[in-house]
Design a protein that fits this description.
- The protein is an all-alpha fold and about 425 residues long.
- It contains 15 helices and 2 strands.
- It has helices at about 5-30, 40-65, 75-85, 90-115, 120-140, 145-165, 175-195, 200-220, 225, 230-255, 265-295, 305-325, 330-355, 390-395, 430-435, and strands spanning about 375, 425.
- It has a two-stranded antiparallel sheet.
- It starts with 5 loop residues before the first helix and ends with a helix.
Length: about 425
């Protein structure tokens, strides 16, 4: 079945960009600052725009490209449409229903991946998508947004954790690494449900789960190794390790402070996760997400460190000074810095892509479907693909998607996943994040 080409995938990115810009505009409103656009509902939909309309739709689009089925594009389309409907004069229920449909479709995408390759990493990401479904169901039932935060956190944190679990395989971690990540993932929906019913117990449990999950990820993530490299691998590793730090901050605040439903504590937890962890991961993986979706290279530039460092410094100012000492003016300064950093990264990415595209010869087409893995030689010492093509063409969240877009039974020899019976051959699009992170 034909899937959307470059133009179709670009169209699906439009509502993603709109959700990002509208979400940042809403952030200014919530900070009590002048904003380009001001509507009564913007503050109420800020979280849904950023979590489901922006990051969720981006994850779903990358997953749909990896799976390579036309029906799979319903997930990013509905999540993007939901964001647009939330901004429209239509009742909020219309946008909420569309986002529910998109979350359900995303679960279906993970189901398709699971049928091709049942793996713990896929199950963890699928569980995250189920938490997204739960959040939209609760929101349709008019559950207040602060009560939805644990479900949104679970969606994005488990999505990232599943991807990193898949990539841990290159470092051959002990079985306890997978058991630890899977165990924490299974505990998360239980803790989220407890937070709705018995907040004091539930939020403490959420804090413990986040801290345990962070501990296993930091201990066994291949980013600890690639942080000593250079170029893109080091940039990605630095961004991911910094993100883990903010995940630990959120877990500690929930464990020690209990339910954080308003005020400085709520602001600190919310932005530690969604800015410090999630957007740091987005910046880390952008050089491999966008080429996978748009089929255009996005080479690493040292300038990418600018928005990344600015994001973490301004977030530290906001949380450690503004929220910790209840200084609204400092929170505003930090918040504006956060917005500038988030906006600066796509500017740097676009400039990098334009420079890379000038005078570059046409990239040769590889055999087979462009969304399928392409076998490339692997380093016998690490099992990592050795060609630059792998770095340019794969996808970070393809850890369980693009890598499994080949039929079942393509698990490779001892050198890693890839071509059957060919030790030391790896699937390039499936393992870009392994190459770079």
């Amino acid at each position: 079945m034909n899937t959307p080409g470059l133009r179709g995938r670009t169209v699906l990115l439009v509502p993603v960009a709109v959700a990002l810009l509208a979400g940042l505009d809403a952030a200014l409103v919530l900070l009590g600052l002048p904003a380009p656009v001001t509507t009564q509902r913007l503050p109420d939909v800020h979280g849904a725009l950023m979590v489901l309309g922006f990051v969720g739709a981006l994850v779903a689009l990358e997953r749909a490209v990896a799976v390579g089925r036309l029906l799979g594009y319903a997930a990013p389309a509905l999540l993007g449409l939901g964001g647009l409907l939330l901004l429209s004069p239509l009742p909020l229920a219309a946008g909420r229903a569309a986002q529910l449909g998109g979350a359900v479709a995303l679960v279906g995408l993970y189901g398709a991946v699971w049928r091709r390759q049942p793996a713990a990493a896929v199950a963890v990401q699928g569980l995250g998508a189920l938490l997204a479904v739960g959040s939209t169901v609760l929101w349709l039932g008019d559950v207040p947004v602060p009560r939805l935060v644990p479900w949104w956190v679970g969606f994005l944190v488990l999505t990232v954790a599943g991807e990193r679990l898949e990539l841990m395989r290159v470092a051959a971690p002990p079985p306890v690494a997978e058991r630890g990540v899977v165990g924490a993932a299974l505990a998360f929906p239980v803790a989220a449900a407890l937070a709705l019913l018995w907040p004091t117990v539930g939020y403490a449990a959420l804090g413990i789960v986040l801290l345990v999950l962070m501990g296993f990820l930091v201990r066994y993530d291949v980013a600890r190794r690639t942080a000593r490299a250079s170029g893109l691998p080091r940039f990605m590793a630095v961004a991911m390790l910094a993100g883990y730090g903010w995940l630990g901050v959120a877990g500690t605040l929930w464990l020690v402070g209990g339910p954080q439903l308003a005020g400085p504590g709520y602001d600190a937890v919310l932005h530690a996760v969604f800015l410090g962890f999630v957007l740091s991961m987005v910046m880390a993986h952008a050089p491999v997400i966008l080429p996978a979706v748009l089929r255009r290279p996005l080479p690493y530039r040292p300038l990418m460190y600018g928005p990344l460092v600015a994001l973490h410094l301004t977030l530290a100012l906001r949380v450690a000074v503004g929220d910790a000492r209840d200084l609204p003016a400092v929170v505003q300064v930090g918040g504006v810095g956060n917005i500038v950093a988030v906006l600066a990264f796509p500017v740097v990415a676009v400039l990098s892509a334009r420079v890379a595209g000038r005078g570059a010869p046409p990239r040769p087409r590889t055999h087979g479907h462009p969304d399928r893995p392409v076998a490339v030689p692997a380093d016998p010492a690490t099992g990592l693909p050795t060609t630059a093509t792998a770095t340019a063409s794969a996808s970070p969240s393809a850890s369980a998607g693009a890598s499994t877009s080949a039929p079942r039974g393509r698990a490779g020899g001892p050198g890693g996943p890839g071509v059957p019976g060919a030790p030391g051959v790896a699937a390039a699009p499936a393992r870009t994040a392994e190459v770079t992170a």
